Amino acid sequence: MGVVARPIRQPVRMRGRSYVAFVFSPVVPIIEWLEEIDATLAQSPGFFVGKPVVLDLSAVDLSQSAIAQLVESLQQRNIRILGIEGVDGDRLSPVMPPLLVGGRRCMLAKNEPKKAEARSKPTSLLLDSQVRSGQSIVFPDGDVTVVGSVSSGAEIVAGGSIHIYGTLRGRAMAGINGNSTARIYCQKIEAELLAIDGYYRTAEEIDANLCDRPSQVWLDGNVVQITPLN
Amino acid sequence: MAKVLVVTSGKGGVGKTTSTAALGATLAQMGQKVVVVDFDVGLRNLDLVLGAERRVVFDFINVVQGIANLSQALIRDKRLDNLWLLPASQTRDKDALTEEGVSKIIAELRTRFDWIVCDSPAGIERGATLAMRYADEAVIITNPEVSSVRDSDRIIGMLDSKTVKAEQGGRVEKHLLITRFDAARAARGEMLNIDDVLEILGIPLLGIIPESQDVLRASNVGSPVTLNDASSAPARAYVDAARRLIGETVPMIVPAPRKGLMDRLLGRRAA
């Protein structure tokens, strides 16, 4: 008879751990109570997803089939029941969630929706110096203001309007995200290209008479118009 | 304290090398200890303009690679004891320049000289960006014509963003030097006038160098224009510019159109 080496048995380790669960306490009539659950779900559809839910039946007296139906209708709403309490054990069938006892009240950490980011994105961009040839300023979120000139070969691209307190010698493209009410303002206009919402006008098509004075550029239907200010 | 000055322009052929030599020589004549550094690797010219081309043994790239030390590569000018040249390599190209190499050499030059004048190559690529990388001040060379002005504008934008000083939140002090200015042609509207250039570029004017045959004559004999003929108009303009560079106040003289003999005989006026 040979000796068979047996692996030493590790004792199964058990650990206790407690969790916080939502407790549903249905009241009669169950139909109306379910409607309220539906209303909550309509407001925030994902509210119960992935959260443990316990059904407390102490306030109602339900038969085994009624309990089965209730669990079933909650399941249809994507609410999975972890356990049931406040009911006799023999009313539960083996396929139902297990009976829980000894639950204690606790405060639920309120899970308020996070406030919209405290600092919202700025909606304008201010440039304090001249924009040089080769520089490209792209700001799709709003207006761009330049305190200085925009050189030949430079470009300003803005989702909103463009304000230039100097001479515009480069390219200015306003309202790039389909904002046809965007405008371009400048002290002197010697632009290479003006565009609003995709409609553009090149240097050749800009009236030389408008050059030496403050002007605004706006979109009239699908024609880029340049009119002097004051 | 040592100052690193870059002479740059964007566009080629506007007078960077001529101006580097002239300003470097004038600063040296004023008693400053000056080194002019050629960054135009592969197309070096500064040694020719300074008449040192027959004395080049080691160059910038040799020093970067550790083949020679800085003292071996520096060439002392024969006319001015205070003027030194660090030549570029003619056999290599700009890719041989590395940021660490340039940084190391500039740092070492700072300990030995009052002024480190860097002659930038044309363009906005590696050579030009490394020439301006460690600059404290910049002289932007511009001819009074639109393409040169636009390229200078681009370079000014780079000086404000790509230099170590700008990245640390500082500001490279910029000076505009208008070269090859022809008063008669500007008066006739064939060239931009000074006010136009200043308005477009928006940086302080360091000087106006008139167009002159003296510049070509000087570089042909391998001499900075200020040494070749100190009384010539461009030489005087460069001396004034160098004096402004070290902080002196010198009145700015805008060259007036000179009438030719025929103009005078016929009583013509520049229109």
Quickly give the structural class of chain A.
alpha/beta
Count every helix of chain A, treating DSSP H or I runs of 4 or more residues as helices: 2
Main β-sheet description of chain B: 8 strands, mixed
Rg calc of chain A: 35 Å
Number of strands of chain B: 8
Features:
heterodimer; A: 230 residues; alpha/beta; six-stranded mixed sheet; five-stranded mixed sheet; 2 helices; 28% strand; B: 271 residues; eight-stranded mixed sheet; 14 helices; globular
Structural commentary:
- The complex is a heterodimer of chains A (230) and B (271).
- Chain A has 230 residues and is α/β, with parallel strands linked by helices.
- In chain A, 12% of the residues lie in helices and 28% in strands.
- Chain A is built from two helices and 14 strands.
- In chain A, the strands form three sheets. Chain A has a six-stranded mixed sheet, with no helix packed on it. In chain A, strands 5-7-9-11-12 form a five-stranded mixed sheet, with no helix packed on it.
- In chain A, β13 and β14 (223-228) form a beta hairpin.
- Chain B is an alpha/beta fold and 271 residues long.
- Chain B has helices at residues 16-29, 46-49, 60-65, 70-73, 99-112, 126-133, 146-159, 164-167, 183-187, 194-201, 213-220, 225-228, 233-245, 261-266; strands at 3-8, 34-38, 75-76, 83-86, 115-119, 137-142, 173-181, 205-210.
- An eight-stranded mixed sheet of chain B has the order 3-4-2-5-1-6-7-8, sandwiched between helices.
- In chain B, a hairpin with a 6-residue loop joins β3 (75-76) and β4.
- In chain B, α1 crosses α13.
- The relative contact order of chain B is 0.17.
- The mean pLDDT of chain B is 92.
Topology:
The complex is a heterodimer of chains A (230) and B (271).
Chain A lengths: L21 E3 L5 H14 L9 E4 L7 H13 L4 E5 L38 E4 L8 E4 L3 E4 L8 E4 L3 E7 L2 E4 L9 E6 L3 E4 L2 E4 L12 E6 L2 E6 L2
Parallel strand pairs in A: 1-2, 2-3, 4-6, 5-7, 6-8, 7-9, 8-10, 9-11
Antiparallel strand pairs in A: 10-13, 11-12, 13-14
Chain B lengths: L2 E6 L7 H14 L4 E5 L7 H4 L10 H6 L4 H4 L1 E2 L6 E4 L12 H14 L2 E5 L6 H8 L3 E6 L3 H14 L4 H4 L5 E9 L1 H5 L6 H8 L3 E6 L2 H8 L4 H4 L4 H13 L15 H6 L5
